[in-house]
Amino acid sequence: MKLSERVEKMQFSPIRRFNEYALEAERNGKKIYRLNIGQPDVETPECFLEAIKSINLDVIEYAESGGVEDLQQAIIDYFRIYNIYYEKKDIMVTAGGSEALNMLFTTILDPGDEVLIAEPFYTNYHTFIAAANGKVVPVTTSAEEGYHYADVDKLEAAVTDKTKAILITNPGNPTGTILTKDEMQLIIDFAINHDLWIIADEVYREFAYDGRKVYSFGMFEECKNRLIIVDSVSKRFSACGARVGCLVTKNEDVAQGVMKLAQGRLCVATLDQIGAAALYRLDKSYYKEIRTVYEKRRDAVYEEIMKIPGVICKKPGGSFYLMVKLPVDNVENFLMFLLKEYSDNNETVMFSPAGGFYATKGLGRDELRIAYVLNEDSLRRGIQILAGGLKAYKEKED
Amino acid sequence: MKLSERVEKMQFSPIRRFNEYALEAERNGKKIYRLNIGQPDVETPECFLEAIKSINLDVIEYAESGGVEDLQQAIIDYFRIYNIYYEKKDIMVTAGGSEALNMLFTTILDPGDEVLIAEPFYTNYHTFIAAANGKVVPVTTSAEEGYHYADVDKLEAAVTDKTKAILITNPGNPTGTILTKDEMQLIIDFAINHDLWIIADEVYREFAYDGRKVYSFGMFEECKNRLIIVDSVSKRFSACGARVGCLVTKNEDVAQGVMKLAQGRLCVATLDQIGAAALYRLDKSYYKEIRTVYEKRRDAVYEEIMKIPGVICKKPGGSFYLMVKLPVDNVENFLMFLLKEYSDNNETVMFSPAGGFYATKGLGRDELRIAYVLNEDSLRRGIQILAGGLKAYKEKED
């Protein structure tokens, strides 16, 4: 009785893997600034719980497999803000962006099929693609180049006859890299040339800073039939625990294929869909509001990071993550040191080691991801602890 | 740009497939008794919504990937009623029983691996197993024998060197067949002999009639390490839309494998888990109460069914389904007739054609599944319409 090869080869989440050491430290009374996980401290808009609390149902019934109609309509109206036009049949409501990706890869990948992804990338893509017996083919980027990947030569070098799709996270996680309109065009042309699906994970769509315009692959007519957009309420509305997202596509084959899987799992939680509809209906001034909050946070983190001697970090333009290259051999050892040995006034800090964000073995060992999901003061304090911890770690190592 | 072979080969849900014709009929003012889907009309216990409405959280955060601890504890306490002892590490909270099955097959099946299931079976097993590139190997049963499958010869004939697991739905869906303790022992011995996983889908555990004792595979010590139990709040607590279930196992390899997938999808909806904890904590008198309700419904349906000339139907001992063999060539055509042409006082009835519950092609064409999920009067009326419709259909066919 063995497990499947695909699961044997899978990793535990590098983001969640160190949690037990953090919990242990907390049990010992240490305060931890958690910059490791994309769980914002921003309040979920009240309309979410209000919508759910106003529900009076005698029976909590299954919803339709494609989603509650009112939520589908709210999603359609949301995209319309950006002059992107969808219909209900194009919208599959999913349990977060995670389920959208999971169902999508099961729908489009045969065993051995490849998906191009710029590395470092959101580590759970690995899990979803491996679950479908597919293979991640990384397009390697570097801290020094600000994790730039919209480069035809780089993309061409990675494509094979097994390549089925290119997956773009824009704005990026973990890098914060954000594509220009021209770069999006370049990727679309590349995908058309090689007849690839374009999977656009745009859950950080509104997190675009420095006056950047918000773009979506949905704005480009010419890729409409090969485009699948993944969306979610988790980050935009700070509602990670709602587990509501969607898969959006004009491609009817994909929509039908995903529907087969969706009918298998019956539906997404009914109450959360009702709450999510209220979120998608928030006035668009909300996006401006949170953008301002996170832009300040980014600036604070970046300012503190750049005070640390020997780091490499380019100021990212979007999402709420930032990658940093540290002058250490192995950030995992450094993180263990921070959690188990180091303390500054009985406080320490936690981040995500970046090794798990790379598909290429050995890369990312000296890089980490910071999620700037706490208030400015906590962020500054967290990075200052990191700086102090680094000094102590290096002294100990010498 | 093609879809994956696994999804190309998949069927749409035969339970949900006829929904569009039903909706069309309803738009035309026809009332439909929906006996096609396992969506009970029984009120969800108030504690579910009450627990959720009393939540005051500023941020709807991710839950732990394994589940909210309080819910895990409530599940542990629930199993203890039956003298089955689990710990938190054994309980993976999932988005309904569906996700439990989905993650389980991804964890234990390599492409081509086989799972034994008595047919007719819950059609979505097909989807989950195909998603993992596995194969259903059916153990065929018949209406005439009351869908009996606990038969060593039948099981032995189906096993190959690719067989990895036997999946048991007990009490059964769609058959209502319920195993005796001796039959469970027979299946366990068989699984041990062939070194198979035992997957026990026991979501209808409490729906056992005629004074039958409630059994679980969890009560058998000797299969502990090869047993995976799937549970759910959907049916037991009439909370289908909550999408909360769990995968329960003492096998640490499976628990760890499933955890890798669970971390990938992050967590199950936080609020619904809080509601589900209240459900699992209901006094066990609740189970007696609903058992009485459904037993009366079963008796009513069975009584009405047996009035129809030429049917074959054995009174089932559990769950809330009942299979009927009708004297027609193709129940799908009959269902279309009921939805599109027939009406009795502007009312008609809907059921699930059983073809989709069989893996063997051609079987089940003259069988249907009734879900007795409505009140007694509606059920009697529904079956009477079915009887009238059948008479009209046969007259028209002649």
Account of the protein in words:
2 copies of one chain form a homodimer. Chain A has 398 residues and is an alpha/beta fold. Helices cover 38% and strands 15% of the residues of chain A. Chain A has 13 helices and 12 strands. Chain A has helices at residues 5-9, 19-27, 46-53, 69-80, 96-108, 124-131, 152-158, 181-193, 252-264, 270-280, 285-305, 331-340, 376-397; strands at residues 31-34, 91-94, 114-119, 135-140, 163-169, 197-201, 227-232, 245-249, 321-325, 347-350, 352-353, 367-371. In chain A, helix 5 packs parallel to helix 6 (124-131) and helix 11 packs parallel to helix 13. Chain A is globular and about 60 Å long. The mean pLDDT of chain A is 96.
Summarize the structure.
The structure is a homodimer of 398-residue chains. By secondary structure, the first copy, chain A, is of the alpha/beta class.
Task: Give a topology summary.
The structure is a homodimer of 398-residue chains.
Chain A: H1 5-9, H2 19-27, E1 31-34, H3 46-53, H4 69-80, E2 91-94, H5 96-108, E3 114-119, H6 124-131, E4 135-140, H7 152-158, E5 163-169, H8 181-193, E6 197-201, E7 227-232, E8 245-249, H9 252-264, H10 270-280, H11 285-305, E9 321-325, H12 331-340, E10 347-350, E11 352-353, E12 367-371, H13 376-397
Helix pairs in contact in A: 3-10, 4-10, 5-6, 5-9, 11-13
